[in-house]
Amino acid sequence: MLRTAILRAARTTPQRAARIAVSYRPAVPVFVRYNSTTPPKTPEELAKKAALKERDAIQRDWDAKIISYEELLPKTQSPTPDTFLIDVREPDEVALGMIPSAVNVPLSILPESLHLSAEPFKEKFNFDKPRHDQEVIFYCRSGKRSTTASDVAKRNGYKNQLSVDRYNALSDTTMDSLLESLEVLLDDIANPEYEVEYHSGVLTLDLGQHGTYVINKQPPNKQIWLSSPLSGPKRYDYSEDQDDWIYSRDQCALGQLLNEELTNALAQKVDLQLSNVSSKVE
Question: How far apart are CA 135 and CA 213, in angstroms?
């Protein structure tokens, strides 16, 4: 009897472990492609290969980034109005649980939904329709539907998002340019109370009685954040169309706001020249 029990446990344990592993799979886009080493022979196999090739061409054209759980987590913990996390599963699947801060637009109705104007969209889903310049992240159970959703979004005018490398290049160039301009400005003013420092992606501008500005990179959100003693905190996204860092709520550029506030605070003309970012990237 003991031998029978051991054999049964040996047979059932791997199956149970597999079921547990699947049930706890994180619901984030993970793309897996299987490439067979056997060349297709039948007309059906050739047709399938052609369809897969066409699908791959669409995906390359879209070039939607696949993000990891580690990249997604900060966006769920500190959601912003500038990023939409959209679950494209069906309502019965979403009822079993979804990522915090996500909203649901099933893939089955996504194409027609993106054709809606802003007001009907909000009436239907109870949240604002994403703008074309906002970050949109789709997810599903295995990644297949989120891939299709990315292509649907592209066909409806939504643009590719910044890659990590491009974000770093643009933001580093902006921060370096800002530091250099501020150092020249403070040297000209020659006030010992004024100081600018830059370390680990954080720039601090101390203007004594006028307060302190803190400007820092935010790689998880692909933004530059500003804390101003005059206007408070703001988050800037890079706009390809304007080639500048733009605050989405008032469409004001980072350099424009700093130039206006520093000109008033220092009682002299300040022009930090932070626009045309991509032309300065090495």
Answer: 27
- Do 271 and 259 form a contact (C-beta atoms < 8 A)? yes
What are the residue numbers of the active site?
140
Which among 193, 259, 203 has a CA at the least distance from the CA of 231?
A: 259
Cα atoms in the Cβ-side hemisphere of radius 13 Å centred on 23: 7
Residues 6+ apart with CB under 8 A from 231: 257, 261
**Token digits of residue 261:** 């506030």
Residue 161 has pLDDT above 90, yes or no: no
Question: What's residue 172's pLDDT?
Answer: 92
What pLDDT is recorded for position 257? Answer: 95
Q: Encoding tokens for residue 237?
A: 């996204």
Q: Which helix (H) or strand (E) holds 203?
A: strand 202-207
Joined together, the tokens standing for residue 76 give 């769920």
Rounded to two decimals, the pTM is 0.49
Q: Tell me the residue length of the chain.
A: 282
User: Pick from 38, 27, 97, 101: which is nearest to 67 by CA?
Assistant: 27
For residue 273, what are the CA distances in angstroms to 132, 234, 257? Answer: 27, 19, 12
pLDDT in tens, 228-269: 999 999 999 888 778 899 998 888 999 999 999 999 999 999
Sequence-distant (≥ 6) Cβ neighbours of residue 20 within 8 angstroms? none
89-121 core/surface letters (b: 16 or more CB in 10 A; e: else): beeebbeeebbeebebbbbeebeebbeeeeeeb
Q: Report the 10 Å Cβ neighbour count for 153.
A: 21
Q: How far apart are CA 4 and CA 116, in angstroms?
A: 63
Q: Six-digit token pair at 14?
A: 């791997």
> Strand (E) positions, the chain?
83-87, 103-104, 135-139, 194-199, 202-207, 212-218, 223-228, 232-239, 244-247, 252-253
